[in-house]
Amino acid sequence: MGLLDIFIKKRPSAHIARERLSLVLAHERAERLSTDVIARLKEELIAVICRHTSINKDALNVTVEHRDSLEVLKVDVVLPEGGLRRAVT
Amino acid sequence: MTRVVVVTSGKGGVGKTTTSASFASGLAMRGKKTAVVDFDIGLRNLDLILGCERRVVYDFVNVIQGDAKLSQALVRDKRNENLAILAASQTKDKDALKEEGVKAVFDELREMGFDYIVCDSPAGIEGGALMALRFADEALVVTNPEVSAVRDADRMLGIIDSKSLRAEQGLEPVKEHLVITRYVPKRANKGEMLGHADVQELLNIPILGVIPESEVVLECSNQGTPVILADGSPAARAYDDMVARFLGEERPLRFINGDASPSLWKRLFGG
């Protein structure tokens, strides 16, 4: 222990706990929110696309990718053979 | 109208069963007809904490599977006739809790005129814990001032907001209350422990109770008495405040300023 340490007050551990928790909770809440939103988005996208084409439900894939500070929403749609075709109504 | 209240936490050992026992007893003491149900299938303990373990004949799973009537399985509390306990099964496997079965039992409890059904949740975020919160109208989320318990409580809040029947059906959301246990005001004031305001701010739900750390809790569990009945002890009074607030009374938080142990004067002369 250095002589200076006597004069430097140690940071209370509860402060550290609060900071660590607020970071981890914010991160986990954002993740939770995005999985909920993605699930809903996917459902609605399928409904919309199916109204206009005859794609299979499994042919649609929605993901969110984190690139640096960006969040990228990626929607992959596999079109049926023969390309876009109106759904039979 | 029966209200279903789940006592949950995510993390184990933070005082769910202790809180369930005191909360249910407190409601009963205030004249509310209360049933407290142990959802910890395979690890039954609520009966022991409430001191009725020798009178359990049938359990929750027996009733769900039709091996016993609900009226046969409900154990009346010896101290308060308003309180009934439905024990968890100690032998059956934990997948025995099915949603329809639980719903049927709850419907019957409603018909029997219970004001409150208190669901003592197991730890974790699977099967039994999900079933305990499924039908909840309100939730007591129990945590102690420790990082892992607070994080798990937050996770549990997320699960209540997505997996409860109220959430799925788009009804008014489950009303969530925060209960902080094992609180040591002196340490919190010194910055050695997360303060109740910190925990409240992090989890962002209103505080229903702050229960001070107390030797009485272990003594009560030794004897099979709910803590709320340990007359005069700060933990008992804190639980009593908690129940009063739950029922709509306004009571300021006590035992948060290092006054958890009574002064020598008070100990000698009461007060």
Describe this structure in words.
The complex is a heterodimer of chains A (89) and B (271). The mean pLDDT of chain A is 79. In chain A, 45% of the residues lie in helices and 18% in strands. Chain A contains 1 helix and 2 strands; from the N terminus they run αββ. A two-stranded antiparallel ribbon of chain A has the order 1-2. In chain A, a hairpin with a 2-residue loop joins strand 1 and strand 2 (70-77). By secondary structure, chain B is of the alpha/beta class. Helices cover 41% and strands 16% of the residues of chain B. Chain B has helices at residues 16-29, 46-49, 60-64, 70-73, 99-111, 127-134, 147-163, 165-168, 185-189, 196-203, 215-223, 234-246, 264-269; strands at 3-8, 34-38, 75-76, 83-86, 116-120, 138-143, 175-183, 207-212. In chain B, strand 3 (75-76) and strand 4 (83-86) form a beta hairpin. In chain B, helix 1 crosses helix 12 (234-246). Chain B is globular, with a radius of gyration of 18 Å. The chains are: A alpha+beta (89), B alpha/beta (271). Chain A binds chain B through residues 12-15, 17-18, 20-22, 24-25, 28-29, 32, 36, and chain B through 147, 150-151, 154-155, 158, 162, 188, 190-195, 198, 202.
How many DSSP H or I helices of chain A? 1
Estimate what percentage of residues of chain B fall within beta strands: 15-25%
Structural class category of chain A: alpha+beta
Spatial extent as radius of gyration of chain A: 24 Å
Which structural class do the helices and strands of chain B define? alpha/beta
Low-confidence stretches of chain B: none
Most strands sheet of chain B: 8 strands, mixed
Tell me which protein chains meet in the greatest interface and how many residues each side has.
Answer: A-B, 15 and 16 residues
What is the averaged pLDDT score of chain B? 93
Order of helices and strands of chain A: HEE
Helix content of chain B: 40-55%
Note the gap between the termini of chain A: 80 Å
By DSSP, the count of extended strands of chain B is 8
Q: Could you say which overall geometry of chain B the principal axes of the C-alpha atoms support?
A: globular
Quantity of strands of chain A, as a count: 2
